[in-house]
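Inverse folding, one chain.
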C-alpha cells in the first residue's frame, strides 16, 4: 500500500521522495566488441565522449552479456533472467516473427513505471513485434518508443553513407522496408540511415528535457543501431575515421552519447542521473575489416568464447561512483536488480531472478555478490543446456561450438562453423586472469585443477536444477502478417509498405 501511495504522489505532485529517485540512462551498443573503444585499448578508434565517460566513471573488465547474439541478450537485460527461462532462444527474432518477449515477463521498465518513472526506449528493441504488435516496447512498460524494432540488416537497404554511397549488400529483399516506430505507429518506412541517428538523438534528448521540466524521474533505454552491419553514418561522420566505415559508425555512436550527456547537463540533472554503457554481444567478425574487435579475447559474436560475451561496460554518476576500473564479475542480468535497488523498487519474488545487485561494486568499492556466471550459446537448447561456467577466475567449457558468423579467412578454426559442436568431459578449463584468450587449457587431471572442476560441476548441477525451459518464442516461426507495414493490406507486398514514395531501381545507388 505504501509503495502504491508513493507512486501516486510521485506522478501527480512530484514529492521530495520522488525527486530523490535517481534518473537512469542505459546506453546499449550493438555488436561492439570488448576491444573496440579507445578506453579499452583500440589504437585507432576515436570516441571522445565515451573516453570522457570512462575517465569520469568506472570501467568493468569482466562484464558479460547473457548470450552472444541480440534477442536473448536483450531479454536478460529487460528481465534479469537467463533466456532459457523466458523462451528467447535459439537465435534471434526476424522482422516477421510471430513470437516475442512474453507479456507475463516483468521488465525493468514496467517496474520503474510503477514507481512513478517516465520510461522511454529509443532505437533497437529486437524482442518481437508480433502479428498484432502485441510485443512492442509500449506493451512492456515503456511510455514511449522511437526506433527500428529489430536489426536493420533484416530489411532491404541501399544507401548507408553520404553522398549516396551504397551499403555492403542489399539486405533482405523479401521483407518490408525498415520501419521507424513512434510509439505504436510507423512514422517512417523505409528508415533513412543518413538521418536515423539524428532522429534517435532528438527523441532521446527531448525525453530527458521533458522529464526534467516535469521533475519526474526517468528511465531512458538508448539502444543504438550502431555498430551492427550494415554500418552507416550521416554526412557529418562519413569519412571521419581512419578506421574506415566501421570507425565512421563508431564516431556517430560516440556523438549520440555526447548528445545525451549534453542534454543531461543542460537539464540540470547530472548530479542525480546514473548512466551505464555496454554492448549486447561481441563483434561481428564475419564482416572482417568492417566488423568490430574483441581485443585479446577469443572469437566474437555467436560463440561462448570470451570474445562473444565479454563486453565493454562503463558506469557513470558524478559524486557517487569513484572513477577507475574494476575486475569484479558482473553482467547484463545484474542491471535489472541494480536499477530497481537504485529506485527503491521491490524486486519481483514470484519468479527466479538471475541477476544480483551491483551496488557494492559501484558505490562501496567492495567485491561482487556474483560468484559465478552462466554461458548459453546462440543456439541454446534444453538438450545441451549450459555451455560454460565462469567461477572466480576459472572458466569451464562443457561444450564449444563454432558458428557461421566468421569469414572463410578468419584464422581461428575454433570460431568457425567447421569446428562443429564438441562436448568436453571433463570440461576444458582456463584461468582467465592468466589466459583471457582461452588458448591454454589446464590439466584437469592434476591438483588443484581437478578440485576446481569438481566445484564448478556442483555449481552447474545446482543451477540447472532451477531451470525450467520456457517454450521457445523464436521457434513459433514467421508470418507476413507480423511484418511491420505502414499500409496494412496494401499491394504489391512488401514493396508497398512505405510512408514516402518508394525509390525506383533507376534511382537506387547499388
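Residues assigned per position:
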Amino acid at each position: 500500500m505504501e509503495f502504491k501511495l508513493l507512486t501516486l504522489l510521485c506522478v501527480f505532485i512530484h514529492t521530495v521522495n520522488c525527486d530523490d529517485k535517481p534518473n537512469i540512462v542505459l546506453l546499449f551498443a550493438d555488436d561492439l566488441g570488448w576491444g573496440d573503444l579507445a578506453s579499452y585499448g583500440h589504437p585507432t578508434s576515436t570516441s571522445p565522449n565515451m573516453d570522457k565517460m570512462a575517465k569520469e566513471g568506472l570501467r568493468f573488465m569482466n562484464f558479460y552479456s547473457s548470450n552472444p547474439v541480440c534477442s536473448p541478450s536483450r531479454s536478460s537485460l529487460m528481465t534479469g533472467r537467463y533466456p532459457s527461462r523466458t523462451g528467447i532462444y535459439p537465435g534471434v527474432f526476424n522482422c516477421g516473427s510471430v513470437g516475442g518477449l512474453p507479456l507475463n515477463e516483468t521488465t525493468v521498465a514496467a517496474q520503474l513505471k510503477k514507481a512513478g518513472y517516465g520510461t522511454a526506449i529509443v532505437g533497437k528493441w529486437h524482442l518481437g513485434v508480433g502479428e498484432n504488435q502485441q510485443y512492442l516496447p509500449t506493451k512492456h512498460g515503456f511510455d514511449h518508443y522511437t526506433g527500428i524494432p529489430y536489426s536493420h540488416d533484416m530489411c532491404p537497404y541501399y544507401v548507408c553513407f553520404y553522398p549516396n554511397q551504397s551499403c555492403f549488400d542489399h539486405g533482405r529483399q523479401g521483407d518490408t522496408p525498415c520501419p521507424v516506430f513512434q510509439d505504436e505507429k510507423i512514422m517512417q518506412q523505409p528508415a533513412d540511415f543518413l538521418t536515423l541517428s539524428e532522429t534517435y538523438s532528438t527523441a532521446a534528448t527531448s525525453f530527458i528535457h521533458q522529464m526534467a521540466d516535469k521533475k519526474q524521474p526517468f528511465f531512458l533505454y538508448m539502444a543504438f543501431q550502431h555498430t551492427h552491419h550494415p554500418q552507416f553514418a550521416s554526412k557529418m561522420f562519413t569519412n571521419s575515421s581512419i578506421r574506415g566505415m566501421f570507425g565512421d559508425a563508431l564516431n556517430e555512436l560516440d556523438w549520440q552519447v555526447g548528445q545525451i550527456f549534453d542534454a543531461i547537463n543542460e537539464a540540470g540533472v547530472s548530479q542525480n542521473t546514473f548512466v551505464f554503457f555496454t554492448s549486447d554481444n561481441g563483434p561481428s567478425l564475419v564482416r572482417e575489416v568492417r566488423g568490430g574487435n574483441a581485443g585479446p579475447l577469443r572469437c566474437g559474436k555467436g560463440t561462448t568464447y570470451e570474445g562473444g560475451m565479454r563486453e565493454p561496460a562503463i558506469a557513470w554518476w558524478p559524486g557517487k561512483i569513484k572513477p577507475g576500473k574494476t575486475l569484479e564479475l558482473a553482467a547484463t542480468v545484474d542491471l535489472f536488480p541494480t536499477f530497481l535497488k537504485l529506485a527503491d523498487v521491490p524486486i519481483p519474488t514470484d519468479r527466479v531472478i538471475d541477476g544480483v545487485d551491483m551496488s557494492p561494486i559501484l558505490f562501496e568499492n567492495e567485491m561482487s555478490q556474483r560468484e559465478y556466471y552462466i554461458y548459453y550459446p546462440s543456439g541454446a537448447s534444453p538438450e545441451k543446456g549450459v555451455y560454460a561456467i565462469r567461477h572466480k577466475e576459472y572458466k569451464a567449457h562443457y561444450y564449444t561450438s563454432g558458428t557461421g558468423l566468421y569469414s572463410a579467412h578468419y584464422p581461428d578454426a575454433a570460431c568457425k562453423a567447421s569446428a562443429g559442436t564438441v562436448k568436453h568431459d571433463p570440461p576444458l578449463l582456463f584461468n582467465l586472469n592468466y589466459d583471457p584468450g582461452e588458448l591454454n587449457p589446464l590439466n584437469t587431471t592434476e591438483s588443484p585443477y581437478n578440485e576446481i572442476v569438481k566445484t564448478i560441476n556442483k555449481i552447474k548441477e545446482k543451477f540447472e536444477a532451477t531451470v525450467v525451459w520456457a517454450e521457445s518464442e523464436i521457434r513459433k516461426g514467421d508470418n507476413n502478417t507480423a511484418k511491420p507495414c505502414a499500409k496494412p493490406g496494401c499491394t504489391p507486398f512488401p514493396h508497398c509498405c512505405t510512408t514516402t514514395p518508394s525509390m525506383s531501381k533507376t534511382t537506387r545507388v547499388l
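The CA atoms of residues 120 and 144 lie 5 Å apart. The first helix runs from residue 2 to 13.
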